[in-house]
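Meet my pick.
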Amino acid sequence: MPIHNKLVRDRIPEIIENTGKKFSTRILDDQEYIKELKKKSFEELDEYVNADNDKDAIEELADLLEIIHALAECHGGSIENVEEVRRQKAVKRGGFKEKIFLIEVEDD
């Protein structure tokens, strides 16, 4: 039986069970959960970076967004809180729509 040892979406055990396969799971404590969400975010980011078409890129961005939702809750917030902070930063520092690439800045 392959060993996965990774955080999975809530319905994955149900999906596996419906195939008739045997499996084992456990519930993480809060510290383990945050650690595994962070690991999962790198996994999904890597999958996004390696996506070779728009459809796959959107799929991976959706996975990243699901992780951001979960992490926001872990830190006592919500996706709405995250979005508000994003908006404030965009007002103060701008977004990335203008595609500006900084080459260098003179040192004093």
Notes: The mean pLDDT is 97.
